[in-house]
Amino acid sequence: MPVTGRTGLAGFTDLVLESGYVFEELHIAYETFGTLNAACTNAVLIEHALTGDAHVTSGVAEPATAEHPSSFAPGWWEEVIGPGRPIDTDEFFVVCANALGGCNGSTGPTTIHADGLPYGSRFPALTVRDLVTAELALTDRLGIESWHAVIGGSMGGARALEFALLAPERVRKATVLAAPAYSDADQIAWAHTQIQAIALDPDYCGGDYSALGRFPAAGLGLARQIAHLTYRNDVELNQRFANAHQFPRPAGAPDTYYSIQSYLDHQARKLVHRFDAESYRVLTAALRDHDVRRGRHSDLAEALAGARSEFQVIGISTDRLYPPAQVAELAAALPGTVTHHTIESWAGHDGFLTEGQKVGRLVRGFLED
């Protein structure tokens, strides 16, 4: 398999957030796959989800990291991106950046501040627009005048939508997958419970746990369990687990330890081992506050009127985090050329990740159209 990928770390100064906070210095980590053509017309930006990262597919040559020790470690969208795949890296120059505020190389709460201590609680609140502002700076650094497409699911879908609104002349096509135009009361409530789970952990220490050598593992794990219930759906969970007890039962587990409990505990452990709690809180709050109407217009269609891209909007039939009706509302309000699809899936919100073949077919057709 030929090596087609590269890692990068871009440094910037004086990036201004919506709040007015100024990052005197920040870094955005990213990965690229394929080759940018001479006309710079084949660039595709992939936007990852809340706890995702830039490693969308295998093939990064160097350097290897603890998270991806193998040069060819599989990425999180392996079925969709790569040589000969729907987003073909032999045809497109694919870029994915780690979100500002995350914990996979870009500046975030665990980054060391100028005073020698982690940012911790001093890390500023972010908005989805702030994440896009950082990605626009990266766009300039890479010498890309406009993206052939910006594609994202979940939080990545919110970023793709905001990118097309903040820089309409720089996005020819945008795919918004399993994401809405704004967070509603239900989504705000789910985010609130996750943030509270982290904040109430005694080891959270107001967000300054890193400087104290502590980590709110229990709070982050509980937040992940809450979130995971919104990523799947009741029909799937009942089919997989029903009310069966876990066997064999782990040491120390109660007699009434159910299979679904074991599954959620497993999901919690996986995230705790790879993600930072304060990054989770900061990014969850940013997605909670996502609303394209804010500062534009109270009417959704009017708020979206400045978009100039061709849009593809995709919902998941069993998504209970961002239900199909909410995704359809976005599609109906967008101006210009819009295609709207609903993918049939048993997997719930996570269908944007697990239904690679279905997603890939739709995205490939959109890129070629």
Describe the overall structure:
With 369 residues, this protein is an alpha/beta fold. It has two domains: 7-184 and 290-368, Rossmann fold (3-Layer(aba) Sandwich), CATH 3.40.50.1820; 187-285, Rna Polymerase Sigma Factor, Chain: A. It has eleven helices and twelve strands. It has helices spanning 128-141, 155-166, 185-199, 217-231, 234-241, 259-272, 277-288, 300-303, 324-333, 351-354, 356-368; strands spanning 5-12, 15-16, 22-23, 26-33, 43-47, 81-82, 87-88, 93-97, 147-153, 171-177, 310-316, 338-343. An eight-stranded mixed sheet has the order 1-4-8-5-9-10-11-12, with helices on both faces. It has a two-stranded antiparallel ribbon with strand order 2-3. The protein has a two-stranded parallel sheet with strand order 6-7. Helix 3 packs antiparallel against helix 4 (217-231) and helix 4 (217-231) crosses helix 6 (259-272). The chain is globular, with a radius of gyration of 20 Å. The mean pLDDT is 95.
